[in-house]
């Protein structure tokens, strides 16, 4: 009898079918031992000895495996083919050795990259011993994470009450988020203008961009104001233009490599809206397998990998599939071979790919997330072996006769789509490809500017990280391992160091305090290069080039010394350092140039960070005489435009219109004569605040707009933007409008019609709901996204589920919609729960009988 141990019960069931009756396949359910979550589990003074603990559930599983081994002569450890899987096999060996059941038992380790019958049978033919170098790398990493967490966290608790914990990789990831936020806060928007022209040179007109003025090449910020832009327009109109160069050259774009763990998480976030955790959970299901023809088959190879290569058998198979599905033109003459450019990449494993390329996504009966993720993996892997896309890129230069003014037009025409017919890689910030065809023009042809365009812009701050862009940045820096990114980012959310808003990371105040503390007092241990350097050393351990305990000794000596030094610091020293480090965030410069730290209450004291049970806040130095406190984040709005924030001047009052960024978003503000409070107007959703023109700012501040008087009663009809969107108003009737632009453009006839429609349908809130998107059917019933007074919502049968704030309706899939519907249905059910909680009253028999009689009598009446 042979005993095989794998990690999951789903995998055990599948593998047992493949191996037959001579094998008993059992699941360990992951790790069977772990370090107890208490101080002293790793002992630096005893050469980093570790105390491992087996919990009650794991003890049952170890016993079951031990009982089976007693009746067998061979134990095969078939845990996952990575460092963690190697460690689980080692832990099992250690636990079984303590139970003394391995005598006369042949212990073997096998690893397979896919749960298919051929892959497993091939692995069984090539057993090996447990790789202790990989185990040592795991032990070193586990000890490092434990020592940092259990040594640094108590320092945080003492010096920064309200802080939760710190971790070796987690703290560096948090620093990335906080550093980006600081960049955004320090950012000052700069105005710049672009000037374009519609050029005609014998054929159809085409758009060209001004690239040189007064004989000087223009940079992005060269044209800084309207006056300069107008001067540039005049220069174009006055120039004697001709075509000085026409260059058309072929270019090509090669396909991206198949997925690694990191790139899969990034692309699933961009294209499917999946979190890293959701991606990995779905990939795990695809790896473990689904039922196909009565047999459970793994659909993808192992999903925790840094490798980008595929085995030759897979490459040959995918080339055949490409020829069958797309034709011979899409198969390159030679197979493509890839190598990873990421730091610390491990090339031992294949990329993530389908176990069989002949299983086309459309031929599988997969549901929801698995269907979407499998299709993404299949397409990426197939595309990686397809022919390049070919373009013809054309550049036309138009120059004035005096060489003082020059324009340039560029266009890219797709000549052969190649891999793009199947797959195009997503990006964090989508850009226009500019693949427009330019007309045929001859060099030397006379040219003229038919129309010119001068557009105002403002530079934008760097974007906050999404999960995809943060994972990409961590991988570029060599921080952590891709297989741990999902759990690392989840820890930051769970500890409320960050929050997600519109799928982007925003650091919370407690996260910024922790980061500032670590940067000031443990700078070395949150440096990107230092953390990446540790990963490199761990790789050396796994390669057998570095002793793992020597690595720990070197780290612990310096780290312990740094912790001891911090122990001598007084809280006042810590607060002084944090006040300075966080000054741009908590003490932003005031508009009048006054001291931003001056207490606004007593006008004498100085504001400073204070630490309380629930975290940091600001208090006055004159405490307890002055009891002024406020949260760390400034509550007053800050101007978002350089200088005084002015974007326009009201033509009626002459008052400046200021753009500010407040607690609830960017808005306009204008002082009103005789009023205590200024007039304010929010920037409508979808409008770019930095591209707001003077006319639009004035129009927003002038709302509500008088559309005209109603022909029936002469009462005014006005248009405005309210809490629930744009609307028209007449008397006591409010009717919703389709778009913000309607507020400024709607005429009297349309307004009267909208009012009449609302009166004719008094039960409806605003106009009749409109289907924004048809998502398909669920169990034969339609699922739609509808427009509503309170925003877009999912409608399925009688359930209406509001879309989360910031979600764009066009990006929602059927699976996401049904998740919202199910959540709404479940929430509705919970509302009935309180009626059932009357157990204490039922204990009294008399009371129960009385209640029953009363109920019966009432029903009879």
Topology record:
Blueprint: E1 2-6, H1 9-19, E2 23-27, E3 42-43, E4 49-50, H2 56-70, E5 74-77, H3 83-98, E6 106-109, H4 117-124, H5 132-159, H6 170-186, E7 191-200, E8 206-213, E9 216-217, H7 226-238, E10 241-253, H8 261-272, H9 276-288, E11 290-292, E12 295-297, H10 312-326, H11 368-383, E13 389-400, E14 405-416, E15 446-458, H12 467-477, H13 485-494, E16 498-501, E17 504-507, H14 509-521, H15 528-542, H16 548-567, H17 571-581, H18 583-586, E18 607-612, E19 615-620, E20 629-630, E21 638-639, E22 646-649, E23 656-662, E24 665-670, E25 679-682, H19 694-701, E26 705-709, E27 716-722, E28 725-730, E29 733-736, H20 740-745, H21 748-760, E30 771-778, E31 781-786, E32 793-796, E33 799-802, H22 814-830, H23 839-842, H24 845-860
Parallel strand pairs: 1-2, 1-5, 5-6
Antiparallel strand pairs: 3-4, 7-8, 7-15, 8-9, 8-14, 10-13, 10-15, 11-12, 13-14, 16-17, 18-19, 19-20, 21-23, 22-23, 23-24, 24-25, 26-27, 27-28, 28-29, 30-31, 31-32, 32-33
Helix pairs in contact: 3-5, 5-15, 5-16, 6-14, 8-12, 9-11, 14-17
């Amino acid at each position: 009898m042979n005993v095989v141990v794998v990690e999951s019960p789903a995998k055990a069931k599948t593998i047992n079918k493949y191996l037959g009756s001579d094998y008993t396949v059992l699941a360990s359910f992951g790790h069977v031992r772990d370090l107890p979550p208490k101080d002293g589990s790793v002992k630096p003074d005893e050469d980093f000895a570790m105390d491992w603990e087996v919990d009650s559930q794991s003890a049952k599983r170890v016993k079951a495996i031990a009982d089976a081994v007693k009746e067998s002569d061979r134990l095969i450890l078939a845990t996952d083919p990575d460092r963690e899987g190697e460690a689980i096999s080692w832990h099992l060996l250690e636990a079984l050795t303590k139970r003394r059941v391995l005598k006369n038992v042949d212990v073997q380790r096998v690893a397979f990259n896919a749960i298919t019958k051929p892959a497993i049978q091939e692995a069984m033919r090539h057993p090996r011993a447990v790789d202790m170098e990989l185990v040592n790398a795991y032990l070193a990493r586990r000890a490092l994470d434990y020592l940092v967490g259990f040594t640094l966290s108590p320092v945080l608790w003492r010096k920064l009450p309200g802080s939760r914990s710190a971790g070796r990789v987690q703290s560096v990831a948090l620093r990335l988020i906080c550093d980006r936020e600081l960049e955004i806060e320090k950012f000052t928007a700069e105005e710049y203008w672009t000037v374009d022209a519609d050029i005609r040179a014998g054929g159809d007109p085409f758009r060209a961009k001004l690239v040189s003025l007064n004989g000087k090449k223009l940079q992005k910020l060269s044209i800084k104001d309207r006056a300069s832009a107008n001067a540039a327009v005049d220069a174009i109109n006055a120039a004697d233009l001709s075509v000085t160069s026409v260059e058309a050259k072929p270019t090509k774009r090669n396909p991206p490599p198949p997925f690694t763990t990191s790139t899969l998480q990034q692309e699933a976030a961009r294209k499917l809206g999946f979190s890293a955790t959701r991606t990995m959970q779905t990939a795990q299901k695809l790896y473990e397998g689904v039922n196909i023809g009565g047999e459970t088959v793994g659909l993808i190879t192992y999903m925790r990998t840094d490798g980008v290569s595929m085995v030759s058998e897979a490459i040959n198979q995918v080339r055949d599939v490409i020829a069958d599905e797309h034709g011979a033109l899409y198969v390159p003459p030679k197979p493509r071979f890839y190598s990873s450019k990421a730091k610390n990449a491990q090339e031992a494993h294949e990329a993530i790919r389908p176990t069989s390329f002949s299983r086309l996504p459309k031929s599988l009966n997969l549901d929801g997330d698995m269907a979407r993720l499998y299709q993404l993996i299949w397409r990426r892997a197939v595309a990686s072996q397809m022919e390049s896309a070919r373009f013809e890129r054309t550049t036309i230069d138009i120059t004035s006769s005096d060489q003082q003014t020059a324009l340039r037009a560029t266009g890219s025409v797709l000549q052969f789509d190649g891999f793009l017919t199947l797959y195009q890689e997503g990006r964090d910030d989508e850009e226009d490809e500019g693949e427009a065809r330019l007309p045929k023009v001859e060099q030397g042809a006379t040219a003229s500017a038919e129309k010119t365009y001068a557009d105002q812009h403002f530079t934008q701050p760097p974007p906050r990280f999404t999960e995809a862009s943060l994972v990409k940045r961590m991988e570029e820096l060599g921080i952590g391992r891709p297989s741990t990114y999902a759990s690392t980012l989840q820890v930051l959310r769970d500890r409320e160091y960050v929050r997600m808003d519109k799928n982007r990371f925003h650091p919370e105040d407690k996260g910024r305090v922790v980061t500032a503390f670590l940067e000031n007092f443990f700078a070395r241990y949150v440096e990107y290069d230092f953390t990446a350097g540790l990963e490199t050393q761990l790789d050396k351990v796994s390669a057998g080039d570095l002793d793992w305990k020597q690595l720990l000794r070197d780290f612990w000596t310096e780290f312990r010394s740094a912790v001891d030094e911090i122990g001598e610091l007084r809280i006042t020293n810590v607060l002084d350092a944090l006040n300075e480090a966080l000054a741009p965030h908590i003490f932003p410069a005031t508009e009048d140039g006054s001291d931003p730290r001056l207490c606004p209450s007593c006008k004498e004291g100085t504001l400073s960070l204070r630490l309380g049970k629930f975290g940091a806040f600001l208090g006055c130095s004159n405490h307890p005489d002055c009891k002024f406190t406020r949260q760390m984040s400034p509550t007053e709005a800050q101007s978002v435009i350089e200088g005084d924030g002015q974007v326009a001047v009201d033509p009626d009052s002459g008052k400046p219109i200021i753009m500010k960024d407040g607690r609830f978003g960017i808005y306009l503000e204008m002082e009103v004569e005789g009023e205590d409070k200024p007039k304010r107007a929010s920037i409508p959703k979808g409008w770019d605040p930095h591209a707001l023109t003077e006319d639009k700012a004035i129009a927003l501040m002038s709302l509500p707009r008088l559309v005209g008087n109603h022909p029936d009663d002469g009462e005014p009809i006005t248009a405005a933007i309210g809490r629930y969107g744009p609307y028209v108003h007449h008397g006591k009737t409010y009717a919703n409008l389709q778009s913000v632009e309607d507020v400024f453009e709607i005429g009297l006839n349309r307004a009267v019609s909208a009012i009449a429609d609302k009166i004719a349908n008094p039960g409806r809130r605003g106009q009749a709901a409109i289907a924004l998107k048809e998502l398909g059917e669920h169990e034969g019933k339609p699922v739609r996204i509808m427009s509503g007074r309170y925003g877009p919502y999912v409608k399925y049968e009688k359930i209406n589920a509001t879309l989360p704030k910031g979600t764009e309706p066009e990006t929602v899939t059927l699976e996401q919609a049904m998740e919202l519907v199910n959540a709404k249905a479940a929430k509705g059910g919970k509302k009935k729960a309180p009626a059932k909680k009357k157990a204490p009253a039922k204990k009294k028999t008399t009371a129960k009988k009385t209640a029953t009689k009363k109920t019966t009598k009432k029903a009879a009446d």
